[in-house]
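Final report, Chapter 2: Outcomes

The project's central promise was a pipeline that accepts a single protein chain and returns its three-dimensional structure in a standardized token representation, suitable for archiving and comparison. That pipeline is now operational. To close this chapter, we reproduce one record exactly as it appears in the project archive, with the input sequence first and the structure output second.
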Amino acid sequence: MRILFDHGTPAPLIPFLTGHSVTKAKDAGWDRLANGALLDAAEAAGFDLLVTADKNMRYQQNLTDRKISIAVLGNAQWPVLRRYVEKSCYRRQRGDPRQPCRG
């Protein structure tokens, strides 16, 4: 899966997404694009998922006919998010069949 991280998404999350190709909007030269233009560029480039911390995107954009999936982080602060990531990794190590963690 091709994943695009919006500018507010914490980069330390990337190593935990094994088996996926992750690109930061800044690295693609899209860090100054507004939400609509960012979604257009991401879809045109073939991204499957946009990970963002923008909780208002659904109110600001018409997402009905979008091909890209959007995951909105409830809290984009890495120290907080890290607890959830590590908890998920612990479950996987105890036999959960989902993809393995690393990081």
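Archive annotation: Helices lie at 35-44, 57-60, 78-93.
This record, like all others produced under the grant, will remain available to the consortium after the project formally closes.
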